[in-house]
Amino acid sequence: MDSDIDRLTQWMLHSAKEINRLHARLHETFVRRDTDERFREEWKAACAEFHARYNDLAFPGGYEVAFQRIVAGDSDAIEAALCFLECRPYFVRSGYMFKKLLRKARQAPLTTDQALRLAVVQYRQDEWRVLRRARNSAQTFSAADGSPAAAFAH
Length: 154
Hints:
Elements: H1 2-32, H2 37-58, H3 66-71, H4 75-87, H5 94-107, H6 112-145
C-alpha cells in the first residue's frame, strides 16, 4: 500500500512540475505576443497546451470530476485526494484545490487508516493557521508601536 501512495505522490509532484513549466511557458510567450504574428501563434499554442493538459495533470482521473468522485466514495479518488493533501504539490490553483479537497475529503466515506491520515492533515493545517495568525499579529503589533515583537514575525 505504501508503495502505491509513494507512486501517487511522485506522480503528483511530477505533474506539478509540468503544470508549472506549462504555466511559465504561457507567461514567457505572453510578453512577446504583440511584437510579431509568429510570437502570437506561439502564445496561442502555449495557452492551448496549458488548458488542454491541466485537467489531467492537476488530479489523477481529471480535476473536473475529482470532487464528485470523492464524495461518491470512489476509493482511487479518495486516495488521490489524501495524497494531494499530504504532499501539497505547488502549482497554479493548487491552494484552492487543497481547500476544496480538504472539505470534500471530510464528506467522503473513509477507512480507519484514511480517517487517521486526514486527521493528521487537518492537525497540520490548524497548526499552520495558528502560526500564521501569531506571525501576522506580531507584525501588526510591531508596526504599530515599534516594539521588539518583530523577532516573532519570522
